[in-house]
Structures are given as C-alpha cells and as structure tokens.
Amino acid sequence: MLYSPAVHLMTRRCKSFAAESWGVRPRAILFDMDGTLTQPMLDFPLIKAEMKIGPGPILESLAELTGERRAEAEAILLRHEKTAAENSTLNEGCLDLLNGLSSARIPTALITRNSVISASTVFAKHQIKMNLTITREDCAFKPSPVPLEIACQQLGVSKDQTWMVGDGLHDIESANAAGIRCVWISHGKPITFAAHPWKTVADLCELAEILRALPK
Ligand SMILES: [Mg+2]
C-alpha cells in the first residue's frame, strides 16, 4: 500500500480524477522546490530590484553580468535565498507524499534553480530526504532538459516512466524538452504562460491521492 489510512483520510477531500488517463505509477518523480515542496519563498521582483537587473529570469540575467557587478548581484541573490530557506514552510501534504513515495520505493530527485546551500537548508529544516539533488551549480539549469536527463540516468529510470512535478514555467519547459511528463501544481490558479503540462493538479494532496489510486 502506497499510503497509510491516515493519509488516505486526509487526502479523500481532494477532487476525483480520471485515473485511466494517468496510466500507471511512475518509476521516479522529479520535484521542483520553491512553490512546489515549499510555499513560495522568494520575492522575485524585490530581488531583481536589489540586484538592479531587468524583469527577465534572475539566473539568465546574472549570467550576463561580469566582474564586481556580477559578484555583488550574486551576493544579493544568495542572501535572499539563505533567508528564504531558513524561514521556509512546506506545502500541505509534502512530507506525507514524500514518505509515501519512499515506502513505495519510488525514487525522488530535487531539480532546482536554487543553490545547493539553500536546498540543503530546506531539506535539513524539514527533514526531507531524496535520492538525488541537482541544483544550479551542478549543470545547466531549468528550462534546460539536462538536469532532468541526468536525474533519470542517475536514478536508473527511463524518461517515459518518470514525472516532473513543479509549479513554474521552467518546470514545464524543461520536462517537455526532455520528453518527460510534467505534472503542474496550479495552487488552484489558471495557467498564465504559454506552455502545456501533461497534467495539472491543485496541490500535493491531490497528487498523493492520484498516486495512491494508480496501478503499479
Ligand atoms: Mg517553483
């Protein structure tokens, strides 16, 4: 059994779904961190303003800077990420979901544009364990498909048996580029960007119920 009766009771209030369209349980799940495992931690407009960069994505903007200017901007980003990680809060159902996956021997990986120190802080604070963590220091970052492909290789699973779970555009784009099914966490809001996830769930609670219901 994938989840305990207590978790089952907790998740019963999640809406029903068409199980047949989901196929079978994945052999591995890759997770985004900010906004997916945790409640949104980072105030991106504030960080961009302090870094004195434009409205584009932070890491791409940072990569265009050089020398002292880049060092100063990166220090601002790291300071915000450190504070956010130390004060992070998990989304509802996160630990139950991860514990259920562990019990069912479905390996998990974190794929984040965040820093390794930030990811380590969040994992230690909330006693999260995953089989693999890939941060922006490790390789090309999302929306590149590379970290997802590396995760599948290191976990020993095929891409067509793996799900990417995330709340952002980069998660969908990286998964689509890798040929991996993306489950988008909507938090009950309509999608506002031009990318198409494979499936949408409102939250981790709904995802847990779906996984529990799917055949192996
Ligand atoms: Mg996110």
Short key terms for the protein model shown above:
single chain, 216 residues, alpha/beta, Rossmann fold, six-stranded parallel beta sheet, 11% strand, binds magnesium ion
**Can you tell me the CATH class of the largest domain?**
Alpha Beta
Class inferred from helices and paired strands? alpha/beta
Small-molecule binders here are: magnesium ion
Low-confidence stretches: 5-14
Order of helices and strands: HEHHHHEHEHEHEEH
Q: What count of domains describes the coordinates?
A: 2
Could you tell me the mean pLDDT? 92
Query: What would you say the CATH architecture of the largest domain is?
Result: 3-Layer(aba) Sandwich
What's the count of strands? 6
Radius of gyration: 17 Å
How would you characterize this protein structure?
By secondary structure, the protein is an alpha/beta fold. The chain has two domains: 22-40 and 90-213, HAD superfamily/HAD-like (Rossmann fold, 3-Layer(aba) Sandwich), CATH 3.40.50; 44-86, no CATH class. The protein contains nine helices and six strands. It has helices at residues 5-11, 44-51, 58-63, 67-86, 94-103, 116-126, 146-155, 169-178, 204-213; strands spanning 28-31, 108-111, 132-134, 162-166, 181-185, 199-201. Strands 3-2-1-4-5-6 form a six-stranded parallel sheet. Helix 6 (116-126) links the parallel strand 2 and strand 3. Helix 4 packs parallel to helix 6 and helix 5 (94-103) packs parallel to helix 9. Magnesium ion is lined by residues 32, 34-36, 166-168.
